[in-house]
C-alpha cells in the first residue's frame, strides 16, 4: 500500500504545483492590470484549493503508512538529529500543512471581498505564500 500511496502523492504533486502556479500568476497578473474577477478566475482558484486539499489527504495517509513513521518509536533513532528523517517526519508535513492553511485562508478571505482588485490581492498573497512554502519543503533529490 505504501508504494501506491507514495506514487500517487508524488505525481499528484505535479498537478498541485502546476495549478497553484497558474492560480497565483493569474491573480498577480489580473491584480496588476486591474481586471475584473470573473467565473474563470473563481474556477482556477477553486481548483487550486481542491487539488491541494486532495494532496494533503494523500499525504496524511502516506505519513501513517510509511515505514519511516515507525522511526518515532525506535530507541536507536533520534528523529530530530537526522536531517533526512526530520525532513520527512517533521518539516515536510508541518510546512505543507501550513501551506494548505494559507491557501485555504486566501480562498476564504477572497470570498468576503467585493472589489475584484482586493480579491486578486488576497489570492495573490495567500496562494503565493502557500506556493513558496510548498516549494521550500519538497524533497527535490528524491522527487524529480
UniProtKB/TrEMBL annotation:
The chain crosses the membrane at residues 12-32, 44-66, 86-108, 120-140. The keyword Transmembrane helix applies. Keywords: Membrane, Transmembrane, Transmembrane helix. This is 50S ribosomal protein L27. It comes from Sungkyunkwania multivorans.
